[in-house]
Write a structure and sequence with these properties.
Length: 454
């Protein structure tokens, strides 16, 4: 049984159980687990699976012919799509599932594909019903280009299912032998992508997985971070420069301009393209009365593994061949890994706070979440509602001890943000100093949460 995908399985079964044939689009980033989900869904259902490749229309038809031949179906060497569909149409008592994985490669070069598919399922020579699942890892194409590409055929789509990243709780279930801290490192490196989790060996330490699976050139993850950028983008040199700068801490447009010397207009266009692929995000600060102290126009890499690959491998490419994988880890990764994991520790803490919110265990019922990005500092988590109530969270992963001075600095930031401090959560992977521990026992507003509780 796959982890964390009950909601998506339920959605697919809902479409399957509807009367008549359906066409749906199931999409999400690479390594999000689309194919694994479909395989699980099809386990007890009759159907067919086909994965498309970038190719010309004639080559697409040839590939379909090869696919049919592999199933013992005789066809022309370059079958028309109507012939392909008809070959799949042998009557069955159950509704059939037909999956076209990476379907965008077909419709980009085959303008008649969707029309012939729709004609087939609606005008089949028998009474067979179908659930056609169009899979895609090209998020930008599905959300921004697909409808205009297929035209009126879009009206025949029954719905869209977007697969999102799994949670930290799901990751912990996947790596049961790891401590919470180890899982936090894996989360920072791989994010919520089960396809990447599968490339780690749960019986190896995090260190050994990084060395064997990522740093070594023979490792299955060595090139993946770069491929996620290059597979769908041209001018990769420009994109590499921008992503590397973001991973290096240059988060504002002016900082990117100073570093790259690309025009601001060019940077904005390229960042927009990266955002459509969900590789980069714009960080919006929660709107408060402390606007004068808030920062605007902040960008960050949103894909954890792309961030890791550019933070370590891309930055030190010249030494990947010169050093052994073990020495590369020791010299470049180990000294800053805690600091790197700090970037994504707030995700884990937010998940914890949202569980409390769902169980009505916070002093407010929050309906929105965000971050306050201020000039004096950042408030990692702000849960708030329309009544102006808020619960704040501060997250520390890289420092061995969270001190009372750190707490006072956090309160200073909250004051500048003009945010209420009636309830505060402080998370740490290390320890709390004695003064802060005593304050946590005295103050009803202050909640101190250690790593083992996450």
């Amino acid at each position: 049984m796959i982890i964390g995908r009950n909601a998506e399985l339920k959605q697919l079964n809902t479409y399957y159980e509807r009367d008549k044939s359906q066409i749906i689009v199931l999409y999400g980033q690479k390594y999000i687990g689309k194919t694994t989900l479909v395989k699980e869904f099809m386990e007890d259902k009759p159907g067919f699976y086909y994965c498309a490749f970038p190719a010309s229309e004639r080559e697409q038809k040839y590939r379909f012919g090869v696919w049919l031949a592999s199933m013992g179906v005789r066809s022309l060497k370059y079958p028309e799509f109507s012939e392909v569909f008809k070959s799949l149409g042998k009557e069955h008592s159950q509704k059939k599932v037909i999956v076209f994985d990476e379907f965008q490669h077909i419709i980009k070069t085959c303008p008649t594909f969707m029309d012939e598919l729709i004609s087939f399922i609606h005008n089949s020579w028998n009474d067979q019903e179908y659930l056609v699942i169009l899979l895609s890892s090209s998020v930008g194409f599905v959300e921004n280009s697909m409808v205009s590409k297929i035209g009126e055929a879009a009206f025949e789509l029954s719905g869209f299912v977007k697969m999102k990243e799994l949670s930290f709780a799901d990751l912990k279930e996947f790596f049961p032998l790891y401590s919470n801290e180890d899982c936090a490192y894996v989360w920072a490196i791989l994010g919520g992508f089960p396809g990447l989790w599968n490339m780690f060996e749960p019986k190896l330490s995090v260190k050994e997985n990084i060395i064997r699976k990522i740093i070594r050139k023979s490792g299955p993850l060595h090139e993946v971070g770069f491929m996620l950028v290059s597979d769908e983008l041209r001018e990769t040199g420009v994109y590499n420069t921008i992503i590397s700068a973001l991973s290096d801490g240059k988060h504002k447009l002016n900082e990117l301009y100073d570093h790259t010397e690309f025009s601001r207009a060019k940077i904005s266009v390229y960042i927009k393209n990266l955002m459509e692929l969900e590789l980069v995000k714009k960080v919006f600060s929660v709107d408060t009365e402390g606007r004068d102290y808030a920062q605007k126009g902040i960008y960050a890499v949103s894909n954890h593994f792309v961030d890791f690959s550019y933070s370590y491998l891309y930055r030190n490419l010249s030494l990947l061949d010169f050093l052994s994988a073990e020495d590369f880890y020791k010299q470049f990764v180990h000294p800053t890994l805690k600091n790197y994991a700090q970037r994504y520790f707030p995700d884990i803490c937010l998940e914890y706070m949202l569980r409390l919110n769902d169980k009505n265990k916070l002093h407010i019922k929050a309906d929105s979440t965000g971050t306050w990005v201020g000039k004096p500092g950042t408030i990692d988590i702000v849960l708030y509602n329309e009544e102006g109530q808020a619960t704040l969270g501060f997250c520390n992963f890289d420092k061995p001890m969270f001190t009372y001075d750190d707490y006072e600095w956090f309160m200073f930031c909250a004051d500048k943000a003009v945010l209420p401090t009636d309830e505060i959560y402080i998370f740490t992977s290390g320890r709390f100093d004695e003064k802060l521990t005593i304050e946590g026992k005295i103050s009803k507003a202050l909640n101190l949460v250690s790593m083992d509780r996450l």
